[in-house]
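Hello,

Our lab assistant flagged a job as stuck in the queue for most of the afternoon. It eventually completed. Since we weren't sure the result was trustworthy after the delay, we are filing this so someone can double-check. Below is the sequence as submitted and the structure that was eventually returned. Let us know if re-running is recommended.
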Amino acid sequence: MTSQVVRPSTARGRRTREQMVEAAATLMQARGIAATGVSDVLASTGTGKSQLYHHFGGKQGLVLAVIDHQLARVLAGQPRLGAGTDGDVRGWANDLLAVHRGGEGPLSCPLGVLSSQVDDDPVLRAHQAAAFDRWRADLAHLVGVGQERGIVTAAGEAVELAGVLLAAVQGGLMLARLARDVRPLEIALDAALARLGVHGAPLRSARVAPDDPG
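-- returned structure --
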């Protein structure tokens, strides 16, 4: 999935484009899409308006590229997804939690935070939905391999079970961010793993000391 503007053919052009997308992604995650103006991105990167319009055609094209960027970032942070997956759904959940347990943790999904901000633009909304479709497809592959290997014991279509995992991530992160505590994400993922019939100790046990009364 790519944005609608043709990507540059030169190394210099690619670097400029990447810098603009990365800056826009950082600003939009922190401030929101509406509160991030083209001038903010230009000031952050030291580029000109003509360059932005050349690479993206305008703000809408830039936001499309940001969605692609954030999807790639999300998938890169889940190494158990992809063609070579071993179907270890519990391992995938622990990998994801490790990102959010360290220090303060981001406690937000760089892709998910954009969802409520694209409602008024059908092009952006469709692109955001397609990004989640891609993520769900990768999760479905993970689940499907898990079913083949007996790791996932629940009956059902892999894509529907993958939707359970995706909903747990998005809902769990939203509540975790409000609480400034990773615990709601752990609870949501534990419930999702139980729905998939993935056996094992609760995810919270990975960070609770043996003598912890909680």
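-- support follow-up --
The delay was a queue issue, not a problem with the job. The result is valid. The chain has eight helices and no strands. Confidence is low (pLDDT under 50) at residues 208-214.
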